[in-house]
User: Fold these one by one.
Assistant:
Number 1:
Amino acid sequence: MKTLHPSKVYQMLEPGPVALLATAQDGKANVMTMSWHMMVEFEPPRIACIVSGADHSFTALRETGECVIAVPPATMAERVVEIGNCSGREVDKFARFHLDSHPAKLVAAPLIAGCLANIECRVIDDSLVDRFNLFVLEAVHSWFDPALTGVSTLHHRGWGEFALDGEIIRLKSRMR
C-alpha cells in the first residue's frame, strides 16, 4: 500500500454518472454539469447533491427549490464537459449547446432531450447548504428514454479524466 494524496480521494469514490442539473428562474432556463451527487433513500427517491455557491445554478436552485437532474449518455461527453466549463451568467447554454428542452410535469425546470433519464426534483432539506452547499432533493416525477436503454454513461474521475461504465454483471441479491 502507498499513501494516497487527499486530492485523489474523489477519484476513488466517484459517486455515479455525470449528470446535468437544469433549473429555471424568472422564466430563464439554465443547465450545469454535476458530478457530486448520491442516492440517500430509495422510496421515495432522495438524492443529495453539491452545487457550489459560485455556480449560477446555485441561486436558482436555492430560490425556486426545484430542478431536473438529467443523465446524459456518454455520446454527449464533449458537450457535457463544455456545459460545465462556462457559466449561465454569460451564456444561454441551451442555445449554445443545442440542447432540446421539453416542459417537465411538476417543476418549472426543463427536461433535456437526448438523455437516458430526467428526474424532476424538489429540495426537501437545505439545512446543510450554508455549510457544505449540499441540497437534499426528492424525485417527484421521472422519465426515461427507452431508445437509450443500455448505452454507456460518463463518470468523472477528476481533473479532466472520465470513465465509461462497462460490462454489466448480475449476482444473486437478497435486496429488492
Number 2:
Amino acid sequence: MKNIIFDIGNVLLDFQPEKYLRQYFNESVMGDLMTIIFSSDEWIDLDLGHIMIQDAIQSLTLKHPHYHDEITFVLNNWTHMMVPLQKNVDLVYKLKDKGYSLYLLSNFHSEAILTMYQRYDFFKLFDGAVISADEHLVKPDERIYQKLLERYTLLPEESIFIDDMLANINAAKTLGINGIHLPYGNDLKSELEKLKII
C-alpha cells in the first residue's frame, strides 16, 4: 500500500451539525434547521460547486422567511464546528513520516475548503486533493474517484480510502480501491494496524 486517501468530515474534522446547533437553538428550532439547511437541495448544490454560501442563504431565506436570521447565522458560521479529530490528525503525521502519499477525497463546499486549508496546518501534509465543489461531482459518483486516480497517477490496488459513509467505501471498491469504513467515533489506529499500514 502506497497511497492513503482521506475523507474530511468525521474522519479528519468533526462534523456534527446537531451538536453545533444545540449550542444556539432549542430542540424544536434545531430540528427545523437540520432539515432546512443540512437536508436541502442547496446543501447538495454547495457540495457540487453550483452555488456559493450567499446564494444558499438567499434561496433558503426566501423559502423559509420565518427563519431568516437563523439560516443566515448558521450558513455564515457553520465551519466553526469543523474542529480536528486529533487522534486521526496525529495518524496523518505518522503516515507521512512512514513515507505514504496522502490524498483528500471529500464532498466539500468551495469557500469552506479554503477556510479549512487556512485554518489547519495539517492539510499541508497532503500530496493532492479532489474536492467535490471543484469537480462538480459528489461521492459516491465513481467519476470523482477516477479523477483522483487519473490526476495523481494512482494505482487503485496500491491505494486505500478512509470514509465514514459505507456507500462511499463501496463505490471506491468497485474501482479496485481498498477501503476502511470508519463510522464516527471509531478507532482509525486499530483499523490501520489490522492492515499492517502502521
